[in-house]
Design a protein that fits this description.
Two copies of one chain form a homodimer. Chain A contains no helices and nine strands. The first copy, chain A, is mainly beta and 136 residues long. Chain A is globular. The termini of chain A are far apart. At the A-B interface, strand 1, strand 4, strand 6 and strand 9 of A face strand 1, strand 4, strand 6 and strand 9 of B. Strand 1 of chain A pairs antiparallel with strand 1 of chain B, so a sheet runs across the interface.
Chain lengths: 136, 136
């Protein structure tokens, strides 16, 4: 199969330092975080403002790419399940998908609401969340 | 900045053959499509069933990675906007994010509802859509 090169465009700055401190999902107590972008991509942020919902894509650099099945949420009572049927970070391409709200937008940085990714996680993409067709 | 290697895990099979035939978003008339996975990743699909909503990530292989700003929806009346504030396929890491419903799940393949990606688009990840916390 083909391979492609993903480039880090920025990094997560968070009080969460270790994986074991991170909640499994954002709505399970994740803190605010700052997204710091490489200067060369600052122009691509223009138009994002406080209050916007965005889809944040990260590269979960500590994940295991060889895992194909897992027990959801590490629960020994649940059956082995394909990782594509879960939100496990362990998967062939360990891309994190986080829907967050922008709290503050400054040149080259965004402060966002509840993010479960740890400090140092590479940012690889940002997309505005899709509104209804009449506001696209 | 760091770079990472993304591997195609499968491919989109669709009646949409050319970019100019594709709607801009799934709910703007996109057809059903089939996702055909490489055999080595079939085990990672176990647990996905008809009716599930999934987040499909693709590699938009025809996109322009040097574009930082664009006019949303190609509309000349709209101001130049950072690509991260849009859903433009043209962006530094051209990852497509599609929320689709599984119509049929068979070993190594998924048939899904409205997908605006064209035939031949590489698939790079699948995640179950997040339900409420009590059903995760």
């Amino acid at each position: 199969m083909e391979t492609y090169e993903v480039r880090a465009i920025g990094v997560v700055r968070s009080a969460l330092r270790e994986l074991e401190d991170a909640p499994r999902q954002a709505d399970e107590g994740a803190p605010e975080a700052e997204l710091v972008f490489d200067q060369q991509f600052a122009a691509a942020l223009e138009g994002i403002k406080a209050g916007d919902a965005i889809e944040l894509l990260t590269w979960l650099h500590q994940a295991d790419r060889d895992t194909l099945q897992t027990r959801p949420r590490g629960d020994a009572n649940r059956p082995m399940t394909g990782v594509f049927a879960t939100r496990s970070p362990d998967r062939p391409n360990p891309i994190g998908l986080h829907t967050v709200t922008v709290l503050e937008a400054a040149p080259g940085t965004l402060r966002v609401s509840g993010l479960e990714a740890i400090d140092g996680t590479p940012v690889i993409d940002v997309k505005i969340s899709l509104g209804s067709p009449d506001v696209r």
